[in-house]
UniProtKB/TrEMBL annotation:
Belongs to the ATP-dependent AMP-binding enzyme family. This is Acetyl-coenzyme A synthetase. It comes from Spinacia oleracea (Spinach). CDD domains: ACS. The gene is LOC110797504. InterPro entries: Ac_CoA_lig, ACAS_N, AMP-bd_C, AMP-bd_C_sf, AMP-binding_CS, AMP-dep_synth/lig_dom, ANL_N_sf. It holds the Pfam family AMP-binding.
Length: 695
């Protein structure tokens, strides 16, 4: 039996505010569309109008649905699953799980015995219900003025042609296919084509080096690699095919060779005459794929058959090969998309993530298409040709839901508001954030400037491993607090535990775990179930351990405080890095901050802060003092940074996350222990930082 009582108590004690700001003093609350959110405002309420039209309109409606989802998960999720097409319905058991390593192998299954296909549900089903002529994908190229689009019917045809080709070269159900493509429409097309024939796709972000690509090829032994010859990113042309050639050579040396490399000719970046070619292995996409029939029978698969394999972004070490299966993932990504963004059929949706990351899987490709949404696939860099590109795109397509990462928000903030306010942005309705905790000051800028204080922000906390949103606002349901991911999604039971694994009650902070499975939980690490259990289920037996630290405030809101390894213990005070970073970023001249702990003779650990400054601001002793002051006044003297390290740039993963493990080594001057820096976006930043260390 599922024990949910503890958790339900938290949720039931959530403050149920009457509509509008109600009993919250005016100073603390602001209502969507009525005023700017200032530092005095703890709460941002949806307007009556927004709530009235939302899928979930009030805290009490959420509570009712949430309660049902954890008391009767089988009933709750099978009702939703029934809205999809199943060739055969699942068996008696909607879910079976064991998360307790003490009771045998960790095992999670949802809708086992159910036979379906996610590509069918994304495309064929939409065509059948009358969405055939609706635009599925808008494509916006790197260069201004280059664009394209595909309706649901057209997308289905393209997917079928590629699926037929893949079958023809021998790809069968259960085979792996590596996709190394930039954000062309061919990328989601390739994912869907694999799903259609039951092949397991593994998208490798097309910014990874040939070694990283080779590692992944050796790991999953694909039948085929799908790529393109080159891509333009900003003003640069990147020769992807050269990287793939090197990756394939490297993997062959390691005993894994690939027979087919299907290459899309991306003419605007590089002509085929200028592309290096390996006869027999390399094939031009445009020469073969369009010749195949534009219909293709679906390979029906079990809900528990694998859908894809994807590596985590590597912020904390060697990336992990996360495996997701079909049925639960389908139901969960579609449902989270619908509720967290309050999606309506008239919305135009843009998520800036690349399909090389989980966000691009769940919320560029599958979640939106399962809902019949029109979404934008953007090839370029968000600051090319200049910092206003995003708003140019928003106005061009009348984007109503805009989902991005704090790193982009902070970098645009650094460039100044004039780039934003030149554009109308009238179409925007809901904003979203993912990837890292969003600092309250960045949240306010996103809210006040980008959204004209009219659009709620869904700060979605989740992971590659979780497949879909775990803690996220439902924008019409309750008040938001800048910087908090708010409450758990339906069916998710977060718990905060102490070092010993005791569940903490009420207002608290500790390690974030999840009790019980949810439909899109990952089922294993590819080829390494033992590492799966050791990393995620052994630290706190009975729970899924997220690796993140978290606190819950008096109102039951959840605040992600960063990775647990990033918590700093200064003279017995446990300080979350996110908190100190937010204090620094709230300083008007600080663009970005990354805080790590260093050994300290007296205090145990000291606080070491790397800061980047707003465009054009020089670093000085006065500025250093006022940055330190910002932390002292906002948090307290105990959190005073011991060192401010001025940084022209910070080391980031290719998905834009700050890599603190490298900063920790620089801070403690353990320069020979920097470890693997191959997943860094710009490895040169590291040398720059080292050079500035004692300045
Ligand atoms: P690796 O696991 O290899 O170190 P990673 O954790 O960065 O890489 P992802 O799965 O892409 O790989 O990222 C998930 C992590 O990102 C979460 O565990 C959390 O630390 C952070 N995160 C994502 N969204 C949010 C959010 N809205 N608020 C706070 N943190 C977030
Ligand atoms: Mg992780």
């Amino acid at each position: 039996k599922m024990t949910t009582d503890n958790h339900l108590r938290h949720v039931e004690s959530l403050p149920v505010f009457p509509s509008g700001a109600g009993n919250i003093p005016r100073l603390n609350a602001v209502i969507l569309g009525e005023a700017l959110a200032s530092e005095e405002n703890d709460y941002v309420f949806p307007s009556d109008d927004f709530s009235r039209n939302a899928h979930v309109s009030s805290p009490s409606q959420y509570l009712e649905m949430y309660k049902r989802s954890v008391e009767d998960p089988a009933g709750f999720w099978s009702e939703i699953a029934s809205e999809f097409y199943w060739e055969k319905k699942w068996g008696d058991k909607v879910c079976s799980e064991n998360l307790d390593v003490g009771k045998g192998a960790v095992n999670i299954e949802w809708f086992k015995g159910g036979i379906t296909n996610i590509c069918y549900n994304c495309l064929d089903r939409n065509v059948e219900i009358g969405n055939g002529d609706k635009v599925a994908l808008y494509w916006e190229g790197n260069d201004l003025g280059s664009d394209d689009s595909l309706t649901y019917s057209q997308l289905l045809e393209k997917v079928c042609q590629l699926a037929n080709y893949l079958k023809d070269v021998g790809v069968k159900k259960g085979d792996a296919v590596i996709i190394y493509l930039p954000m062309l429409m061919e990328l989601p097309i390739a994912m869907l084509a694999c799903a259609r024939i039951g092949a397991i796709h593994s998208v490798v972000f097309a910014g990874f080096s040939s070694e990283s690509l080779a590692q992944r090829i050796v790991d999953c032994k694909p039948k085929v690699v799908l790529t393109c010859n080159a891509v333009k990113r900003g003003a640069k042309v990147i020769g992807l095919k050269d990287i793939v050639d090197a990756g394939l050579a490297e993997s062959t040396k390691n005993g894994v060779s690939v027979d087919v490399c299907l290459t899309y000719e991306n003419q605007t970046a590089l002509k085929r005459e200028n592309t290096k070619w390996t006869q027999g292995r390399d094939i031009w996409w445009q020469d073969v794929v369009p010749k195949y029939p534009s219909t293709c029978d679906v390979e029906w698969v079990d809900a528990e058959d694998p859908l894809f394999l994807l590596y985590t972004s590597g912020s904390t070490g060697k990336p992990k090969g996360v495996l997701h299966t079909t049925g639960g993932y389908m139901v969960y990504t579609a449902t989270t998309f619908k509720y967290a963004f309050d999606y309506k059929p008239s919305d135009i949706y843009w998520c800036t993530a690349d399909c090389g990351w989980i966000t691009g899987h769940s919320y560029v490709t599958y979640g939106p298409l399962l809902n019949g949404a029109s979404c934008i696939v953007f090839e370029g860099a968000p600051t090319y040709p200049d910092a206003s590109r995003c708003w140019d795109i928003v106005d061009k397509y009348k984007v109503s839901i805009f989902y991005t990462a704090p790193t982009l928000v902070r970098s645009l903030m650094r460039e100044g508001t004039q780039h934003v306010t030149r554009y109308s942005r009238k179409s925007l309705r809901v904003l979203g954030s993912v990837g890292e905790p969003i600092n309250p000051s960045a949240w306010r800028w996103f809210f006040n400037v980008v959204g004209d204080s009219r659009c709620p922000i869904s700060d979605t906390w989740w992971q590659t491993e979780t497949g879909g949103f775990m803690i996220t606002p439902l924008p019409g349901a309750w008040a938001q607090k800048p910087g908090s991911a708010t409450y758990p999604f339906f069916g998710v039971q977060p718990v905060i535990v102490d070092e010993k694994g005791n569940e903490l009650e009420g207002e608290c902070s500790g390690y974030l775990c999840v009790k019980h499975s949810w439909p899109s939980a990952f089922r294993t690490l590819f080829g390494d179930h033992e590492r799966y259990e050791t990393t995620y289920f052994k630290p706190f037996p009975g729970y899924y351990f997220t690796g993140d630290g978290c606190s819950r405030d008096k109102d039951g809101y959840y605040w992600l405080t960063g990775r647990v390894d990033d918590v700093i213990n200064v003279s017995g005070h446990r300080i979350g890095t996110a908190e100190v970073e937010s204090a620094l970023v709230s300083h008007p001249q600080c663009a970005e901050a990354a805080v790590v702990g260093v050994e300290h003779e007296v205090k145990g650990q000291g606080i070491y802060a790397f800061v980047t400054l707003v465009e054009g601001v020089p670093y000085s002793e006065d500025l250093r003092k006022s940055l330190v002051m910002a932390v002292r006044t906002q948090i307290g003297a105990f959190a005073t940074p011991d060192k401010i390290h001025w940084a022209p740039g910070l080391p980031k993963t290719r998905s834009g996350k700050i890599m603190r493990r490298i900063l920790r080594k620089i801070a403690s001057r353990q320069l020979d222990e920097l470890g693997d820096i191959s997943t860094l976006a710009e490895p040169a930043v590291v040398d720059q930082l080292i050079a500035l260390a004692d300045k």
